[in-house]
Write a structure and sequence with these properties.
Largest sheet: 2 strands, antiparallel
Order of helices and strands: HHHHHHHHHHEEHH
Strand order of the largest sheet: 1-2
Radius of gyration: 24 Å
Structural class: mainly alpha
Length: 288
């Protein structure tokens, strides 16, 4: 339960915000039930709020305005809440990126410089594929401030400026540190962000690495890459079994990498399983 005063600027999930707002009000003498909250914004249903909070339903612009009225939002809060809902309900990575940017700009416009909840540096780590590549290289060889040399190790190649920026970000995030000899080494720290930021950042990272996979067909000889594909017909149970197998295989690959004391290169390993058709009804007599 949230005991401190609720501040909308601290949230990147409108569902969590609504839930903790209600908990706060109830803890301070105002009795708000699911039904009374829904009724207050013009909805006659005792289960409506539950379906919203568990993500089964979204909310419309009309409901966004009604909630802002009930919460007595300022003009700035109304705009932030609306963008927050749009961000959470966006269907594509492009639109989520757009609303995320607007949220950051709105916070900066208000003077919230820290933007604590947005974790800008951590978000930045996933924005470029080569940040993780540089981090992996540092784990295998001695890397100093010779950014020209470091840039040459990365494939496809990056600039010395990009290599320098990578080092700067990795140091800032505590993922690497410089020793007394002037070389960088890995720390035991890991990236940790809120779910909404991390899920968006990882989606952006995956898009970049998938594009690298396409380019790798022409960029590298088949002797140093392995790219294959398979189109199959499966059930929901079959899909779940396959994703479980991939999860185990991913762990096995990580174990191989962790135990490889002679590592001398960085590889990207992608896994993709996605639909090529809608769910077919075997009882339907229709032509597809």
């Amino acid at each position: 339960m949230k005991s401190s005063k609720i501040a909308l600027k601290d949230y990147l999930d409108f569902r969590t915000y609504i839930k903790e707002y209600i908990e706060y009000k109830n803890a301070h003498g105002e009795q708000l039930t699911n039904r009374s909250f829904a009724a207050a914004i013009g909805i006659n249903s005792s289960s409506w709020l539950t379906t919203i909070l568990n993500g089964k339903k979204g909310i419309t612009d009309k409901t966004i305005g009604a909630i802002s009225d009930f919460f007595k939002h300022t003009e700035w809060e109304r705009e932030y809440f609306k963008l927050l809902v749009y961000f959470n309900q966006a269907k594509t990575v492009e639109s989520r990126n757009d609303f995320f940017t607007q949220l950051k700009q709105l916070l900066l416009k208000k003077g919230y410089l820290a933007i604590r909840v947005l974790d800008n540096d951590q978000y930045e780590y996933y924005s470029k594929w080569y940040y993780s590549a540089v981090r992996s290289i540092i784990g295998m060889i001695a890397v100093s401030d010779d950014f020209e040399r470091l840039a040459r190790y990365v494939s496809p190649s990056i600039t010395a400026a990009q290599a320098k920026k990578s080092i700067k970000l990795l140091v800032k995030l505590g993922l690497i540190e410089k020793d007394l000899r002037g070389n960088y080494s890995l720390t035991n720290s890991a990236i940790s962000t809120g779910y909404n930021v991390k899920s968006l950042a990882v989606a952006n990272f995956q898009r970049e690495t998938m594009k690298l996979g396409i380019e790798a067909i022409d960029r590298y000889d088949s002797s140093i890459r392995d790219i294959s594909s398979l189109s199959i017909g499966i059930s929901e149970a079959g899909f779940q079994k396959i994703t479980g197998m991939i999860a185990e295989f991913r762990k096995a690959i990580a174990e191989v990498a962790n135990s490889d004391n002679d590592a001398d290169r960085v590889y990207q390993v992608n896994f993709q399983v996605f639909p090529l058709s809608r769910v077919l009804n075997h009882d339907e007599n229709e032509k597809l």
